[in-house]
Amino acid sequence: MRELAGRAAFVTGGASGIGFALGRRLAEAGMKVMLADIEVDALKAAVENLRNIGPEVRGVACDVTDPVSVEMAAKASFDAFGNIHVVCNNAGVGGGSGIDDISLENWRWVLDVNLMGVLHGIRTFLPHIRAHGEGGHIVNTASMAGLNSGMGFSAYSASKFAVVNMSEGLATRIKPFGIGVTVLCPGFVRTRITESGRNRPARYGPSQKPDPASSAGTLAAQIAEMIKSGLDPDDVAAQVLTAIRENELYVFTHHDADWRGELEARFAAILAAMDKAAVRQAERLS
Ligand code: NAI
């Protein structure tokens, strides 16, 4: 979508971190912006903060785990701005990893926000964008954790792998309608993701912290340190704006040898397993 000025965007998780930075960049590009978030006080502050960029920044309370809440937030956006063109399904929570440490409620919470939240955004806005026919772009926030298994056995990685896959599948299906898709796969970014428990609804049970002495606890501490010294969310948002304009499917914010190496090792292991299967099949047939 080359022309953003005068058009309208909807951003979930818009009160903090990457979502807030996206909201600011989209507003600076001349778009009307609806920030949607479950954390209402932070949302009010975020809207206030962006007011100097333009009067067309608004906020709406929204819990992405609830399809009705997303539909109501969409309706508020249509009422405020008319047609919506850019939808950023960005809200997400971190939920730790480990086989024994993570409850079923924790799995459900992380999957409901990170995976079902993205689905609810797509299901709600895609028919609208197709119907108005003015073109559009959907941005789904995944993670590098959606491409490699460095986080081990975790709901977070499972949710992000799913978001990468959904985005790739969606891109091919909606290209003919002039609607683009970007899947954002950041490495570590300086946000409040390690404090995700602040927005955990009571129905998912209490927040869980892994035993600091366990391997999951050590991994969580390492990740927290890397997030503290992570990329500025504004850098991430700038790359997303370019991807929207250039209609690019993937955004990778981290691409040094370590990040590439993890991907290369995974793809090499998959291809090696395929080669082995081919050799065994040839042996069976001979
Ligand atoms: P953040 O914690 O600063 O922002 C997340 C926002 O999502 C918050 O405003 C929060 O209130 C909102 N949110 C949480 N649950 C919600 C719900 N049920 N409904 C609506 N809003 C909800 O964290 P950050 O890092 O900005 O997270 C944004 C996205 O970036 C997430 O999808 C996260 O998984 C992803 N990401 C973050 C990375 C990082 O290093 N910070 C790395 C890779 C991906």
What this model shows, in words?
This protein has two domains: 248 residues, Rossmann fold (3-Layer(aba) Sandwich), CATH 3.40.50.720; 29 residues. It is 50% helix and 13% strand. The chain has eight helices and seven strands; from the N terminus they run βαβαβαβαβαβααβα. It has a seven-stranded parallel β-sheet, with helices on both faces. β1, α1 and β2 form a beta-alpha-beta unit. α4 packs parallel to α5. The mean pLDDT is 95. The site of 1,4-dihydronicotinamide adenine dinucleotide has 33 residues, from α1 and α4.
What's the helix count?
Answer: 8
Report the helical percentage: 40-55%
Alpha carbon gap, first and last residue:
54 Å
What is the quaternary state of this protein?
A: single chain
Overall tally of structural domains: 2
CATH superfamily of the largest domain: NAD(P)-binding Rossmann-like Domain
General shape: globular
Write a brief caption for the model:
With 286 residues, the chain is of the alpha/beta class. It has eight helices and seven strands. The chain has a seven-stranded parallel sheet with strand order 3-2-1-4-5-6-7, with helices on both faces.
